[in-house]
Design goal:
globular; 225 residues; 4% strand; two-stranded antiparallel ribbon; mainly alpha
């Protein structure tokens, strides 16, 4: 009697379906909006309340679409979420450009304000790119929750050794938040490697924004102090 072929080694892909809570993502978006509200008016596009107000409206719409958990793919919700993340990212990069222009072309004496502004921009950069990674990896959180994961965009340490985590492990938002933190501080990947051109491109943009914020803005502000 013929024996069945042995199962291939390693964990099965994709992992089983599992709902994913969205409150950490909503809290992160809300924190990014609050940080933008605290920026000086001269570093914002238009009235200081306009962009955060539009972002807050989109956040409320996302909350109404998915109040608690993601269990399957929502195409419209994902498009709205990506639009909101891109909107916040663009506003933050605009603030960095304005702050850099202010440093290079004006005689600035208030170093304390510059340090605070640089910290706010860096923190927003860290938070918003964690959302990019969460929305991008494996086709998005809806596909992951439904167990229809696309090929992974990131190689997490847990995926390399089946002895570390259960075979059904998949990344959660806290994992993407940590990837964003390490990339923003080291200006390069640390324990989690990007696998796709899109992942490498987005991580590269975050590294550049973080490097300019820390290398130019904060160092210049310290010199003024």
């Amino acid at each position: 009697m013929a024996q069945a072929p042995p199962s291939p080694p390693g964990r099965p892909y994709p992992p089983p379906a599992a709902p994913e809570p969205v409150w950490p993502v909503q809290a992160t978006l809300l924190a990014a909006i609050v940080l933008q509200l605290t920026l000086p008016k001269r570093l914002t596009a238009g009235p200081s309340w306009l962009i955060p107000a539009l972002e807050a409206a989109l956040l409320v719409a996302l909350y109404l679409a998915t109040p608690r958990k993601l269990e399957f793919e929502h195409a419209r919700r994902r498009r709205a979420a990506i639009s909101l993340i891109a909107f916040v990212s663009t506003a933050n990069i605009f603030s960095l450009v304005e702050l850099t222009h202010l440093l290079l072309h004006h005689n600035v004496e208030n170093g304390r304000e510059l340090i605070i502004s640089g910290m706010l921009i860096w923190l927003t950069n860290f938070l918003i790119f964690s959302l990019w990674y969460w929305e991008m990896d494996r086709g998005g959180p809806g596909r992951r929750a439904a167990g229809n994961d696309a090929p992974p965009d990131f190689l997490f340490p847990q995926m390399s050794d089946d002895r570390i985590e259960p075979l059904a492990w998949r990344p959660r938002f806290i994992d993407y938040l940590y990837v964003s933190l390490t990339n923003a501080t080291a200006f390069s990947p640390t324990d989690t490697m990007p696998l796709t051109p899109m992942a490498k491109s987005i991580m590269g943009v975050q590294s550049i924004v973080s490097l300019v914020t820390i290398g130019l803005v904060v160092s210049r502000a310290v010199n003024i102090l």
